[in-house]
């Protein structure tokens, strides 16, 4: 069955339909990863987006039960050059097509993904529609131009109620803005007692859990649309150690007086080099974001830049001058991608241990 992808600039791609038999509108973006399509399509940060994979053959190792980053994908659509109908992998339990049909996510294959990627690189991320071959292109373009970008993506993908992942180690409250399961895995692997809370949690509610540290997760959309969380961050960073990833990094910046801006076509892939300005070390990182912290705005705050992207010089890490709080724009939990930056979870736990020790010393001095 034929299907078409129509962009708001009028460009039309004709291809083969796979996945769910539905029509979807979303922001068309591209990811340059050679592997990890299962993690990409289940990453909540792609909420409402139509993702193009630049690697030409997708689906050859199938879908398995273990590599999901969320239970229910929030992605709007999937665009590939070629999809493998007969996956070969000992862990495979279904094909990509079967999984997308089950989750009612439309896909289109057989199009020139290189051409599509070049259009996005030149024009920036564009709105697009995956639709039936019989739909009138002019009507779809008019509809796309009239469509207002959504601002409630975080609300869609965040947990609706708190839940716990018990452990014997330090208690970490994880604020879910669209959390990848990889973040939770890294914390539980280190023995943390994790409490996951909704995006709109207040500082008072966070402190009721008596956390040793707080983590701000990744998530979709414009960070300025999640303004209700900024006061919580401002209070919490003065109370306990804080670590933010991706959207959490951007929200941390906004809460401290910096500004954010939209990138032309974003960073989405698993081979982005990032330099740690403290050590000079370069890590290859996994990234997925369309916004960045505006560099000049940081100079007017109590934040310092700790990491930068070697490809375009954008800010990739921040640290507070007074409080034990730091953030990174990339994904140290990877999934997919390299685990070069995995050490940041250990740094966070070391920060918690240091803060706890200082707190105990303070209590002992007070008793004396």
Automatic annotation (TrEMBL):
Active site: 246, 331, 333
NCBIfam families: CPSaseIIsmall (TIGR01368), PRK12838.1 (NF009475)
Catalysed reactions, semicolon-separated: L-glutamine + H2O = L-glutamate + NH4(+); hydrogencarbonate + L-glutamine + 2 ATP + H2O = carbamoyl phosphate + L-glutamate + 2 ADP + phosphate + 2 H(+)
Pfam annotation, one family: CPSase_sm_chain
Gene source species: Peribacillus muralis
Keyword Phosphoprotein: no
Keywords in alphabetical order: Amino-acid biosynthesis, Arginine biosynthesis, ATP-binding, Glutamine amidotransferase, Ligase, Nucleotide-binding, Pyrimidine biosynthesis
Region feature (CPSase): 1-170
EC numbers for this chain: 6.3.5.5
InterPro entries: Anth_synth/Amidotransfase, CarbamoylP_synth_ssu, CarbamoylP_synth_ssu_N, CarbP_synth_ssu_N_sf, Class_I_gatase-like, CPSase_GATase1, GATASE
Complexes and interactors: Composed of two chains; the small (or glutamine) chain promotes the hydrolysis of glutamine to ammonia, which is used by the large (or ammonia) chain to synthesize carbamoyl phosphate. Tetramer of heterodimers (alpha,beta)4.
Pathway recorded for this protein: Amino-acid biosynthesis; L-arginine biosynthesis; carbamoyl phosphate from bicarbonate: step 1/1; Pyrimidine metabolism; UMP biosynthesis via de novo pathway; (S)-dihydroorotate from bicarbonate: step 1/3
Top-level class of the enzyme under EC nomenclature: ligase
Domain Carbamoyl-phosphate synthase small subunit N-terminal intervals: 1-131
Keyword Disulfide bond: no
Family: Belongs to the CarA family.
Biological role stated in the UniProt entry: Small subunit of the glutamine-dependent carbamoyl phosphate synthetase (CPSase). CPSase catalyzes the formation of carbamoyl phosphate from the ammonia moiety of glutamine, carbonate, and phosphate donated by ATP, constituting the first step of 2 biosynthetic pathways, one leading to arginine and/or urea and the other to pyrimidine nucleotides. The small subunit (glutamine amidotransferase) binds and cleaves glutamine to supply the large subunit with the substrate ammonia.
One Gene Ontology molecular-function label: glutaminase activity
Binding site for L-glutamine: 45, 219, 221, 247, 250, 288, 290-291
Protein name per the record: Carbamoyl phosphate synthase small chain
GO biological process: 'de novo' pyrimidine nucleobase biosynthetic process; 'de novo' UMP biosynthetic process; glutamine metabolic process; L-arginine biosynthetic process
């Amino acid at each position: 069955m034929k299907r078409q992808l129509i962009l708001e600039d009028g460009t039309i791609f004709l291809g083969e339909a796979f996945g769910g038999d539905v029509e979807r509108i979303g922001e068309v973006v591209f990811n340059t990863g050679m592997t990890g399509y299962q993690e990409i399509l289940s990453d909540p940060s792609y909420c409402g987006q139509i993702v193009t994979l630049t690697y030409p053959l997708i689906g050859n190792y199938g879908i398995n039960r273990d590599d999901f980053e969320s239970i229910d994908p929030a992605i709007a659509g999937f665009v590939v050059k070629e999809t493998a109908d007969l996956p070969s992998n000992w862990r495979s339990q279904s094909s990509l097509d079967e999984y997308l049909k089950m989750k009612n996510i439309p896909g289109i294959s057989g199009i020139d993904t290189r051409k599509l990627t070049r259009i996005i690189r030149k024009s920036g991320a564009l709105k697009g529609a995956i639709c039936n071959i019989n739909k009138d292109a002019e009507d779809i373009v008019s509809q796309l131009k009239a469509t207002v970008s959504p601002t409630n993506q975080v609300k869609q993908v965040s947990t609706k109620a708190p839940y716990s992942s018990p452990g014997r180690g330090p208690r970490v409250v994880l604020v879910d803005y669209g959390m990848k399961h990889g973040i939770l895995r890294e914390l539980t692997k280190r023995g943390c007692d994790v409490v996951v809370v909704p995006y709109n949690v207040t500082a008072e509610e966070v402190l009721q859990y008596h956390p040793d540290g707080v983590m701000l997760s990744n998530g979709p959309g414009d960070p300025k649309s999640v303004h209700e969380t900024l006061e919580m961050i401002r209070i919490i960073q003065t109370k306990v150690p804080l670590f933010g990833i991706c959207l959490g990094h951007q929200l941390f910046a906004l809460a401290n007086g910096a500004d954010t801006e939209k990138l032309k076509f974003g960073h989405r892939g698993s081979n982005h080099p990032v330099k740690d300005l403290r050590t000079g070390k370069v890590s290859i990182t996994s990234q997925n974001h369309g916004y960045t912290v505006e560099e000049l705005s940081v100079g007017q705050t109590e934040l310092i830049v700790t990491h930068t992207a070697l490809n375009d010089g954008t800010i990739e890490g921040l640290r507070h001058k007074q409080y034990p709080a730091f953030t990174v724009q990339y994904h140290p939990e990877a999934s997919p991608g390299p685990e070069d930056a995995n050490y940041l979870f250990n740094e966070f736990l070391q920060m918690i241990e240091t803060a706890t020790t200082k707190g105990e010393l303070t209590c002992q001095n007070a008793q004396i």
